[in-house]
Amino acid sequence: MDQxxxxxxxxxxxxRILREVREGQSFVVTSHGRPxxxxxPCEEEGDGAREEAWRKLMEHLDNQTPIENPxxxxxxxxxxxxx
Length: 83
Prior knowledge:
By secondary structure, this protein is of the alpha+beta class. It has a domain at 3-39: YefM-like fold. The protein is 40% helix and 18% strand. It has four helices and three strands. The protein has helices at residues 7-12, 14-22, 49-62, 76-79, and strands spanning 3-6, 27-31, 34-39. Strands 1-2-3 form a three-stranded mixed sheet. It is elongated and about 55 Å long.
């Protein structure tokens, strides 16, 4: 179960919180009594999700058609087209 902690207390005792998170504890950080964040242990790496996402991205990029004669300079309007 999550332990609730104020943002001020979390700021003052961040090192302790990280130690406890490493041990499996999780925290809900509140600001003015409202929950704003959750600090919880990360999932174990090696589940393959990150590697699979990277592989899919590279595959997608490899299948892109290159732009012929790309403009050497892009204007701000070209970069931020508005519809």
